[in-house]
Structures are given as C-alpha cells and as structure tokens.
Description:
By secondary structure, this protein is an alpha/beta fold. The protein has a single domain (25-260), classed as Alpha/Beta hydrolase fold, catalytic domain (Rossmann fold, 3-Layer(aba) Sandwich), CATH 3.40.50. The protein has seven helices and eight strands; from the N terminus they run H-E-E-E-H-E-H-E-H-E-H-E-H-E-H. It has an eight-stranded mixed beta sheet with strand order 1-2-4-3-5-6-7-8, sandwiched between helices. Helix 2 links the parallel strand 3 (54-58) and strand 4. The longest helix has 21 residues, at 3-23. The radius of gyration is 20 Å and the shape is globular.
Amino acid sequence: xxxxxxxxxxxxxxxxxxLATWAQPVVRKATVRAGTVDVPVEIAVPAGKPPFPxxxxxxxxxxxxxxxRAHVRELASQGFLVVAPxxxxxxxxxxxxxxxxxxxxxxxxxxxxxxxxxxEACRGPAGIVGYSRGGYYAIRLAAKRPAEIAAIATYAxxxxxxxxxxxxxxxxxxxxxxxxxxxxxxxxxxxDFELRRINIGRAxxxxxxxxxxxxxxxxxxxxxxxxxxxxxxxEEKIAARHARExxxxxxxxxxxxxxAR
Length: 261
C-alpha cells in the first residue's frame, strides 16, 4: 500500500471511530425525591434528534449492577430514552432482599415522573422493562397509573406479590394482573425456576382472556438470567440476542405514537 493509501485508511478509521463515539448514548446520573428519600437514577439519552420513546427500567432484587447498566445503554442505543432508578439504594436495602418493601415503590414512581418530564421524552405514555422483581414493580405501577404506561416487557417477571402466602404463590397471580391494561411481553428461560414459569404462564393467560395484547416468549435450554450469565451457553447467547430484539420491537410498537412526537 502506498503512503497515500495508508493516510486514507487512517483517516477513514479515525472518521469511523469518531462516528462510533458520537453515536453512543449519553449516560448521566441524578436523584429523584420520593417522600424523604433520595433515589439515585441513571438516565441514558440516545444519539440523534429527540423526542425519544421513554422507557423506565426496573432492576431485579440482586441490585442495580453493571449488567443493568449495559442493558440500559443497549436500550438507549436502540433509540429509547431510559431512566433506571436504584430502588434499593435510597432505602439502604442490601442486595437480594426476600420480602418486598412497598415503600420502595415510591422511588420507582418518582423515576417515572422524572422520565416523563425530561425534555427529550416523547409526550406519550412510557414503556417499562422490568427484570425479575422489577416485573412486579411494573405491574404495580401500570395498575396504579394505567394512562401513563404504554407497554411492559419483563424478563422472568415476578407476577405475584413476593409477600403473599405460599398458596397464592403456587396457585394465583398478583391482583394487578387482573387490572393492568398495558400490552405485556413475557420473556422467560425454559429452565428457569418452575414456580416463576408457572406464575408467568398464568399471567399470560389472564391477560389474554381479558383481551390485553400479550405475548409469551419461552427460550429452550435457557436458565434464569440467560442474557448476562458469565457461564452462558451458546444457546443462551443466542436467546439473549433474540430477547433484546423482541423487547425492542415490542416497545417500538406501543410507545411514542407519531401524534405524541
């Protein structure tokens, strides 16, 4: 290759790197006030021209971790304006809490208010991505504020009150499932815990019977947290890519209609 060719190649690479950097979502931190509690939130803003479809991301009971941050950035790279509250940090809750603390719901709700107030946000209702316990927060919020929730997507979403007695865990779903109007996508690994799969299946049928748009995607050979496991199998890696595309298409279908832009 000639010297001129080398210079052109280097210039092209530099341009490509600059474009890649420019296209990355911008992530900033803030806090939202929920009563007397300050709840940390991360905000991921897509590249491009707003307004953007708004999405609330609600993490699992393991805590808000690097896997969640990567998930939030990926949603933003798909064109969604994302706010992710750390509902545990404001209340100094340790990772993996077994009981559900209803007081933490105020922080998630305040994060929704903050999301919808952002100047980059579409004026229509927001979507919610709920991971595991985050799915329970999603249906609670959707039942309380139905006009402001456009759609829900849950990964292994908890569809029963974690504080409910054992018979309810085995044979029922949360009462919010019988109230919500938001189109809901369920994603779950075929090898996830049986009780979680049962609850999700019952929630799917309950929504379908009520005429609520709903879909259930089950992934063969996939375990809990298949989309970010350190020991992910080849099948789980494929499932993770497929799940991200399903969620992107689901949220794009229901959030930020043209009249709200």
